[in-house]
Amino acid sequence: MTATDSQPPAKPAPKDPWTLPDVSGLVVGVLGGTGDQGRGLAYRLARAGQKVIIGSRTAERARTAAEELGEGVEGADNAECARRSDIVIVAVPWEGHADTLRSLRDELVGKLVVDCVNPLGFDKKGAYALRPEEGSAAEQAAALLPDSRVTAAFHHLSAVLLRDPEIDEISTDVMVLGEVRADCEIVQALAARIPGMRGVFAGRLRNAHQVESLVANLISVNRRYKAHAGVRLTDI
């Protein structure tokens, strides 16, 4: 045995956490794409060059919204939107979250689902976080879609900034949660397509509740300071 043979095999170099996959060729569907948050995400992603389809309960409503957005966005009913998309962003109101996902279980089999829904309540004191039985909206999605790849992201983005054509960059971080790191990296890469944004891995779905809940705090910040604050993580 030579000296070389006796050496242990070299360990592979650690992967750069900021090396992300190319997602430019993937089709993104936005369920709830006729609402403020859904429209904003659809507009920004399409403006960045992503192929985007927005979904609604009625195809006519989705097509009307798509025409208003421009940038090559298409509109379809929710089922067709889910079938034609590689990545499906869930941006529906919390009240319709479970029913929408339950009705699309077959169309979402094998799809990468990105839940950005924030379960919130409102009273005279302002916004407050709700705690779903499953723990979070994302965990509810995972329970309802056992054959889909569920992640959570895009919770803290201002719909006003997303939809403003005069704004070229939105300086914010997008916390991405999920069970499979490769799926999270796809979502991180999608976030990074929007100028100024950075996708950051933030843990497994069991940690989604506090990420969703933070929106209640941001609403208070924005009301107090008349702003459109997001989240920026330091030292990474």
Automatic annotation (TrEMBL):
GO MF annotation: an example: oxidoreductase activity, acting on NAD(P)H
GO BP annotation list: copper ion import; NADPH regeneration
Keyword Oxidoreductase annotated: yes
Pfam family, one: F420_oxidored
Domain annotation Pyrroline-5-carboxylate reductase catalytic N-terminal: ranges: 28-119
Key word Glycosyltransferase present: no
InterPro entries in alphabetical order: NAD(P)-bd_dom_sf, NpdG, P5C_Rdtase_cat_N, STEAP_metalloreductase
Alphabetized UniProt keyword annotations: Oxidoreductase
One GO location term (cellular component): plasma membrane
NCBIfam families from the UniProt entry: npdG
Protein's name in the database: NADPH-dependent F420 reductase
Species whose genome carries this gene: Streptomyces alkaliterrae
